[in-house]
Amino acid sequence: MGLKLYGIPVSTNTTRALVCLHEKGVDFELVPVNLFGGENRQPSFLAKNPFGLIPVLEDGDFTIFESRAITSYVAEKFKETGPDLIRHQNPKEAALVKVWIEVESQNFQPAISPIVYQSLVAPLLGNTPDQAVIDTNLEKLGKVLDVYESKLSSTKYLAGDFFSLADLHNFPYIFYFMKTPWASLVNDRPHVKAWWEDISSRSAFKKVAEGMTFGEKK
Amino acid sequence: MQILPNNQLLGATVALALVAISAAYIYCTSKPKAIKVHGVLLSTATQRVLATLYEKELEFELVPVDMEAREHKKKPFLSLNPFGQIPAFEDRDLKLFESRAINKYISHKHADKGTRLESGDMKQKAIIGVWMEVEAHQFDPAASKLTWELALKPVFGKGTPDKAVVEENEAKLAKVLDIYESRLAQSKYLAGESFSLADLHHLPTIQYLLATQVKKLFDSRPHVNAWVADITARPAWCKVLALQKH
């Protein structure tokens, strides 16, 4: 019995886990969850994740949720195969990966996700984007990306000269952010831009990106 | 060459020995600590790291950061944490930041010392990981806003609580705590029968909220209430609180 990931191909949190599974070359099945039909609020789903959120990972009878806990588990379980996403044999590198994972979680995501939401999601729900929210968060995101720019001018990737989960976790939101009118925040920072072009050209990323059709203009 | 009489030689030897022992003692006790935490006692994130260091029974030095003078937004602090946030952490030549990353590092490096805060079993480690993410993404956003409005704003003289923010975040926190109540009806701690980092990470914010109107959200849920009483009574946490009394 292989792994099952419950989620949808356009969801940022689902794609975070999907990219990790593809990077490790792990066999898995993506099980769609009918969010619009409220499947995630049904008892059978809440038994898997009491918070009613996607993604959820099932490994046999073992179930976990929260995308960054899922990627950590997958990276740990399959640490001997595929790229080393957690630097498990080098304690100092492993610690730096943990630091930059928290950076994405605590500094990067809170700034970028409201911009993506207001810009791409709100219109689909028939709402006008809240420009004040966008502006406040563009300023915050700019400051975070200034630190990324500085870091990436001294190391090739965020935690060091090695690709890791710390870089991977940034993928889904940057992917969507580049479809907003503010992609220049990335493109105007040469090291951030080069880093983004590098990681987004990885085959695992390209594979997952095929399903990320949110925000496409028809 | 003159040779000292025996009793004077003995006296000189004892005196030299005492000087050597004193020097060694002074060296050992004033030796710089390998672990340094740069932060302030009021900060929840700083407290989160101190709690872990006490649980692991590790020696450390707390290096105060002058927040009022915006020391954390300038060099040399920025070379410790380029985001200009406390705490920053040093373990000899290794520099880290982000309290949850620091705690994971400490817990892993000193796995066999003090309280076991993570697990060697891959699945149990993953479950602890799940509830650490829950603390970071479901609990903390609402809880930290409430902590700022109700506990810290008054201390810093930054005005009265914003009622709308308080109401919105109390409602969010209540929903999260309903889930905690169900979870803690199944196991003593969030990740199972043992205390772990997943529980510890909640301590600083919970402690602040217990002194505010938010206390009722914990009191009214019996399993949450028992869990809060248990974790806030831990000796290591009490040591963190005791630091604030000096």
Could you please describe the fold and organization of this structure?
The complex is a heterodimer of chains A (218) and B (246). By secondary structure, chain A is α+β, with helices and mostly antiparallel strands. Helices cover 53% and strands 7% of the residues of chain A. Chain A has 10 helices and 4 strands; from the N terminus they run E-H-E-H-E-E-H-H-H-H-H-H-H-H. In chain A, strands 2-1-3-4 form a 4-stranded mixed β-sheet, covered by helices on one side. Chain B is α+β, with helices and mostly antiparallel strands and 246 residues long. Chain B folds into 2 domains: 35-109, Glutaredoxin, CATH 3.40.30; 122-244, Glutathione S-transferase Yfyf (Class Pi), Chain A, domain 2. Chain B has 10 helices and 4 strands. Chain B has helices spanning 6-30, 44-55, 99-109, 122-156, 163-186, 197-200, 203-210, 215-219, 222-232, 235-243, and strands at 35-39, 61-64, 88-91, 94-97. In chain B, strand 3 (88-91) and strand 4 form a beta hairpin. The model of chain B has no long low-confidence stretch (mean pLDDT 93). The chains are: A alpha+beta (218), B alpha+beta (246). At the A-B interface, strand 4, helix 3, helix 4 and helix 5 of A face strand 4, helix 3, helix 4 and helix 5 of B.
Describe the secondary structure blueprint for this structure.
The complex is a heterodimer of chains A (about 220) and B (about 250).
Chain A lengths: L2 E4 L5 H12 L4 E4 L11 H4 L9 E4 L2 E4 L1 H11 L13 H34 L6 H22 L12 H4 L2 H7 L6 H4 L2 H11 L2 H7 L9
Parallel strand pairs in A: 1-2
Antiparallel strand pairs in A: 1-3, 3-4
Chain B lengths: L5 H25 L4 E5 L4 H12 L5 E4 L23 E4 L2 E4 L1 H11 L12 H35 L6 H24 L10 H4 L2 H8 L4 H5 L2 H11 L2 H9 L3
Parallel strand pairs in B: 1-2
Antiparallel strand pairs in B: 1-3, 3-4
Helix pairs in contact in B: 2-3, 2-10, 4-5, 4-7, 5-9
